[in-house]
Amino acid sequence: MQFRGAFTALVTPYKNNRIDEEAYRALIEWQLEQGIDGVVPCGTTGESATLSHEEHKQVISICVDQVKGRTPVIAGAGSNCTSEAVDLTRYAKEAGADAALLITPYYNKPTPEGLVAHFKAIASEVSIPFFIYNVPGRTSLNVMPKTVARIFNEIPEAIGIKEATGDLKQVSEVIEECGPDLIVMSGDDFTILPLLSVGGHGVISVVSNIIPNLVHSMCKAYAHKNLEHSKSLHFEMAPLCRAMFIETNPIPVKTSLAMMGKMQKEFRLPLVPMLPENEKILKEMLVSGGLI
Q1: Percent above pLDDT 70 for the chain
Q2: pLDDT tens digits, residue range 108-153?
Q3: What ranges do the domains of the chain cover?
Q4: What pLDDT score does 54 carry?
Q5: Which fold has domain 5-224?
Q6: How far apart are CA 127 and CA 120, in angstroms?
Q7: Contact, 48 vs 249, CB < 8 A?
Q8: pLDDT at residue 1 greater than cutoff 90
Q9: Cβ of 106: how many Cβ atoms within 10 Å?
Q10: CA distance linking residue 257 with residue 191, whole number of Å
Q11: Which residues pair with 73 in a beta bridge?
C-alpha cells in the first residue's frame, strides 16, 4: 500500500443519533470515484471522541468493507488509555485496515519516556503499521522531533506521523531527525503544499470530504513536479479550507456535506449546529466554490 497523497479524514454521518451506514458507504464510494488516495475512519473529524467502542469498530468495519482494497485505510485507533488503544488497534487489524492512526495520549500529558512506552506497548500487542497523530491543539501535548525519532527508530511498526501542529519548522526538524523513510502527512489543510515542499508525503485532510478531487490533484501535481499547478490549486482551495474552521471541526464540514445532499446535518453533543450567521458565511463559500 502507498501511503502518499490525499487521504480523507472521513466524517461519521448520523441519523437519529445512530450511524447512518447508507450515507457513510455512499460518501466513501464518492470519495473513491473522485480519486482520493486513501481514507481515515474514526479520526477527530469522524467524532471518534463520542463513538462508543462498538460504534468505533462498526465504523471501521463499514469503511474497510466498502473500500474493498481499492485504496489504503488508516483506521483511527488511539486513546489516552493504553489498554483501550490496544483493543481498538487489534480490532482495526482484524477488520482489515492497512494501518492505524494513534493519537498521542490526551489529558494524561505523558513524558517523552511515557510516550515511547505507550507506543511500544501497543506494537508489542498488535503488529500493524501505525502513524503517530500529533495534534497538540487537541491533546495539550506536542511530540517533539527527537521523541518522534525515538519512536520511529525503536518501533518497527511506526511508519509515519500525522503532523497537525501547523509548525513547518517542527515538521522540517522531524524529517531532519528521522530521514526520508518516515511518512509525514500534514494534519492541517492550510499547510499541505508547504509540507510537501520540505519532504512530506501528503495529507490527512478535512476539506477533502467536500473537494476530494482538488486535494488529490494538488498532491498529484506536486508529485509530478508541476509546481505552478499545485500552487494554483493551493490558493483555489484556501477559502474553503478557512471555511471548514469557522467553528470547531467537524461542525462546518458536516454542515457542508448536508448542504451538498450527502447526509443529514446531525452531530453528537457536546457538538451543536453552527450559529446562523456562520452557516450563512459557509453557504456563501460553498456557492462560490460551485459545490451547491
Answers
A1: 100
A2: 999 999 999 999 999 999 999 999 999 999 999 999 999 999 999 9
A3: 5-224
A4: 96
A5: TIM Barrel (3.20.20)
A6: 10
A7: no
A8: no
A9: 16
A10: 23
A11: 39
